[in-house]
Amino acid sequence: xxxxxxxxxxxxxxxxxxxxxxxxxxxxxxxxxxxxxxxxxxxxxxxxxxxxxxxxxxxxxxxxxxxxxxxxxxxxxxxxxxxxxxxxxxxxxxxxxxxxxxxxxxxxxxxxxxxxxxxxxxxxxxxxxxxxxxxxxxxxxxxxxxxxxxxxxxxxxxxxxxxxxxxxxxxxxxxxxxxxxxxxxxxxxxxxxxxxxxxxxxxxxxxxxxxxxxxxxxxxxxxxxxxxxxxxxxxxxxxxxxxxxxxxxxxxxxxxxxxxxxxxxxxxxxxxxxxxxxxxxxxxxxxxxxxxxxxxxxxxxxxxxxxxxxxxxxxxxxxxxxxxxxxxxxxxxxxxxxxxxxxxxxxxxxxxxxxxxxxxxxxxxxxxxxxxxxxxxxxxxxxxxxxxxxxxxxxxxxxxxxxxxxxxxxxxxxxxxxxxxxxxxxxxxxxxxxxxxxxxxxxxxxxxxxxxxxxxxxxxxxxxxxxxxxxxxxxxxxxxxxxxxxxxxxxxxxxxxxxxxxxxxxxxxxxxxxxxxxxxxxxxxxxxxxxxxxxxxxxxxxxxx
Length: 545
Known about the structure:
Number of helices: 24
CATH class of the largest domain: Alpha Beta
Number of domains: 4
Oligomer: single chain
Structural class: alpha+beta
């Protein structure tokens, strides 16, 4: 009797657990799920979590089930190694699924392949019972894949080294009238002396040069800092008056505007400068006295107390301070960009380093830019030209040449570090690129860091980094979209570039604004490549394009 009951119990259990054939028929009772439901590509990879829920009395304790995730896309299929599950009575090392019902979850990973934009993920399963294999109906679990992050502008931002070329060069030319001690009389020997003659010759040269012009003239008179202050101030005033009369006399027939006239009084500034430049044995002591005392009388008294020092000053320094300066302020109009281009073709030897760097920034042809930079390097050893040449190669996609060029740059400043980061970005070495951009810290590096953060799926930080990025708003808008900050993305999208219009269409689609999707895409289609992309973009699934 007991044996019969055991047989009946075994039969009931066998009847309760589905056979392999029945598992196939009951496949609709198996529930599947995927997070996210629309696959997303990040850093050229698709990662998601799939779950399969087997109901009670479905999973036969004596079978093995193989589940293979497969992405079906335009142009082919991609499959993973199958997940294997076993019933409770199978003696193997697969994950056990109870006949009482159970949910299993698995991480899936696929490398992105072009064409997966229009695709879907399905689970293909089969039941293995001994030598028998029965296929189960395939189950679609996700659509995909979203490649919106690939819209990032990834070329990288570079800051070229600027030239110090001066469009207008300001300078001064001057002559001096020297006076005898306690005198304001201008001697004829001074008017016919070398200093005044050289000044007048300079005025004539300026007048003859069509690029040069005198902007203003000055007369500045002084007294040496010896004796009473009030006496020296009056003496300085008298010298300014006599120098003005001398100016009128000597500049007749020369181009010289009416000068402004100043009287300085005691020339302590000139005194300090001459002492500093002198070879006086006690000049450090004199300079110390000047720094310790500001009162002119105290200064003079302290210096006079050093009798030997004062004697040396009377012979070498003080006579140079009894003077009036005749000054012409001059502007030289440098070569224009057009003239530089002309000189480049016929007389480039007159161009210095700054002129070569300026003309390189003006020319449009990259081959010509390269030639100019090489000339600046060859003639002047220009480190800025070397760096700019490496940047030119980076912008042209000549990464091997860029790398070699950057290695020749002597200064490893922030711009160079940023350029090294752009080189790593081009190579797909995002870790090195990110490190370089964080280290450089320039605005260009900050923009480039945002690119890397987008490419590696760090969308929240990317949006923060790019929120105030100057210039084109493209990458900052994209970062906001990827971080699901759609209102911020919409507000930031102010550029009229077709690619930004495409981003606006994505924002509209995610917000359910059908008419705006159409309008934005019409503007985006000025770039034909975007029309082809939109046709297979999961962002616009369900919209009539």
